Every structure is written in C-alpha cells, then in structure tokens.
Amino acid sequence: MKHVVRFFLPTSGLIGALLLLASSAARAQATADSATLKPEFYGYTGVYYGYDFSTPHTRTRPGFVYSENRHNAFSINIALLGARFTSERVRGTFAVQTGTYPDANYAAEPPVFKHLHEAYAGVRLRPGLWLDAGVFLSHIGLEGPISRDDLTLTRSIIADNSPYYESGAKLTYDTPNGHWTLIGLVLNGWQVIRDNNENKGLGWQVQWKPTSQWVLNSSTYAGEGPNQPDSVGRQLRYFHDFYATCQVTPGLKMAASFDFGIQQQQSPRIAYDRWHGAALIANQRLTRRTALSARLEYFHDPAHVLIAAARLNPTAPFRTGGASVGFDYLPVPRCLIRLEAKGYRAADPVFEANDQPRRTNAAITSSLGLTF
User: Fold this and answer.
1) How far is CA 200 from CA 129, 259, 276, in A?
2) 120: which strand partners?
C-alpha cells in the first residue's frame, strides 16, 4: 500500500493545470460558441409511499437506505429542476433538488449544498476529449438517484452505499467508434462537495460496449475515506465497482454488479477493513405499457465501514441478503407508476421491530414519477 499513499498526496497543482488548459481552450472558442448555446430546461418529480412492516418509530427505514426511505407517509423522493447546454466546444449543467433523497444522502453537507443536484462546466479539448469541473453525478455504480432511470423502483444496498454524486474535475474520452469511454477524475473525496481537509481522491472509469446489447463497466476510487479534518488523520480507501448490462431480447434487460472495498483502520494504520456486495437485476417488458422487475442482492460489511452498527446489536457484523419484485405501468408518456415489494434477511439480528432485534425486514413501496 506504500505506492497508494504516495500516489494520493495533495493534487492542487494538477487541478490548476487542468483548469488553466480549459480556460485557454474556452477563450479561443468563445465567439463561435456564443451563437450556438441553446439551454434546455428539464425536470423530474418522484413521489412515493412506503410501508415498512417493522413500523419504525422514527418513521424512517433502516439507516443504510437513502432513497424512498420514509415509512407510512406520502413523500417526495426527489424533485429536480435544471438547465443544460451543449455546443460544439462547451457544455454545462445546473440542477437543483429537494426531497427525502437529498435530505438523507446529503446529510453531511452544509445546508447550502443539499439542494445542489449538479453544477458543472465543461470544455472540449480535442475531438472526443472533454474536461468538466464542478459537481456531477458519480462515475460509480449501475443505479442512480432517479428511479425512472433504473431497472427497479428502489436502489440496492451497494448503490445506496457508494457515491451518488462527486465534486472535482474529470477528463472524458470517447473513442470515434463509440465502443470505449475512458474517464479520469480528481475529486474532493468520497461523495463530498465541501471538503474538510487537504486530502484528495482519484477515480477512473473504463466502459466498453462491444455490441449494441452489451455494456461492461469498471469504476474505481482511491483516496481519502471519511471526510474528516486533517487533525484527525487520513484513512485511505480503495474501492472498485464492476457491472455488466445485457439487452437479452428486445423486452428483457439484465444487469449484474459487484463492489469491493478496503479502508485503512484508524489504529493500527497497517490494518485494513474490507467490505463487498453484489446485485443481480432483471426487467422484463410485458406489453408496451407494463413490465416486471426483480433483484437479488447481498452485502457484507463486518467492520461497519459504510453501514452503521445496529442500535440494539452493535457488535453484530452486517451480512445481509435481499430480494425484491416489482411491477411498472406507463399510463401515458413521461409518467411512470411503479410498485415493489422488498425483503432483507441478515445472518445476525441487525434490524429491529418494536425495540427488539430481528434478522428480517420487509417493506412495500409505490411511486409515481413524472418527467418534464
């Protein structure tokens, strides 16, 4: 691990060089682009009702669930409004959000950043090569924060416990044949907008589309773990996510994802904690307006690096499997109604009901999503 430590010393000089290069390229094309910029406005609202059969007194689902996490209440998971523009040489996006998703997932951010979904600017350095800087969606994972874009209504444990957003700068290169996408990133940290220290993280992504049916993706993060002050000390984290999607038939899409991570212990620093997880997802279109979905998943975090220890059983490692089935209905274009039943079963009693530890947890969730 010595090479990793040296690799992630402060990178402010690299960031400055990238931004200086972007500024020079942008000035050279300012006149040409000013006549072609046409902002596009867009929005999405996802309303849901969920019922957790453990009837949690906090009205919130288990702490590792960050999306559609309210119990027995009609809630907005995410409502966002944004604008994007793209020209031959520059692009940018600015979008704001509200709902229970940003409330839970941005809990560590200052209030001013909780409503920031995306805010970045980009410049094309050469054909196929773009430099973007700001706040953008994560390069990690198969599932995103918007249910409409996912194969299932809710997210898997591995999706909810890896970054949904990032801040920093990234270089993206798309090959002319469209088969490869290569991304390199310099980041403030692991899902961090406001940085609390001098440390940075690096990320990279390799995506291969061998045919129109297949997508193979490898995404990596290496750098600081918790966003803690320099006085506390740095804990290095290395994380890799691999996923594959396949359009098996015109109506059937399948996906598989696997995550693995290690993090340096606070003491002794020569030791590392590990976690891993996996998910298998399928979505079968039945008719032009209806579809069925299913997911199997597993997550093991024995040292509670990402999953907080159970309130009633804090010494138990988190080793949990889950399954869900769902039904989708598209009554009109841009409006999607979804229903899902999900259950978890753990090796140890890490859940609770009526202030008693238990090994199982089950819930049903319904949602109505509108795109505009």
Assistant:
1) 23, 21, 23
2) 93, 134
Strands 180-187, 165-174: pairing kind: antiparallel
- Predicted structure pTM score: 0.88
Integer Cα distance of 311 and 74 in angstroms? 26
Q: Which amino acid is at 93?
A: T
End-to-end CA distance of the chain: 48
pLDDT per residue as tens digits for the range 279-321: 999 999 999 999 999 999 999 999 999 999 999 999 999 999 9
Question: What is the 3-state secondary structure of the chain?
Answer: CHHHHHHCCCCHHHHHHHHHHHHHHHHHCHHHHHCCCCCEEEEEEEEEEEEECCCCCCCECCCCCCCCCECCEEEEEEEEEEEEEECCCEEEEEEEEECHHHHHHCCCCCHHHHCEEEEEEEEEEECCEEEEEEEEECCCCCCCCCHHHCCCCCCCHHHHCCCCEEEEEEEEEECCCCCEEEEEEEECCCCCCCCCCCCCEEEEEEEECCCCCEEEEEEEEEEECCCCCCCCCCCEEEEEEEEEEEECCCCEEEEEEEEEEEEECCCCCCCEEEEEEEEEEEEEECCCCEEEEEEEEEEEECCCCCCCCCCCCCCCCEEEEEEEEEEEEEEECCEEEEEEEEEEEECCCCEEECCEEECEEEEEEEEEEEEC
- Tokens 């990402």 sit on residue: 306
What pLDDT, in 10s, does the model give residues 44-76? 999 999 999 999 999 999 999 999 999 999 999
Distance CA 372, CA 359 (A): 41
Tokens in use for 303? 């040292």
Residue 234: predicted pLDDT: 85
10 Å Cβ neighbour count for 344?
Answer: 22
Beta-carbon neighbour count of residue 154 at 10 Å? 27
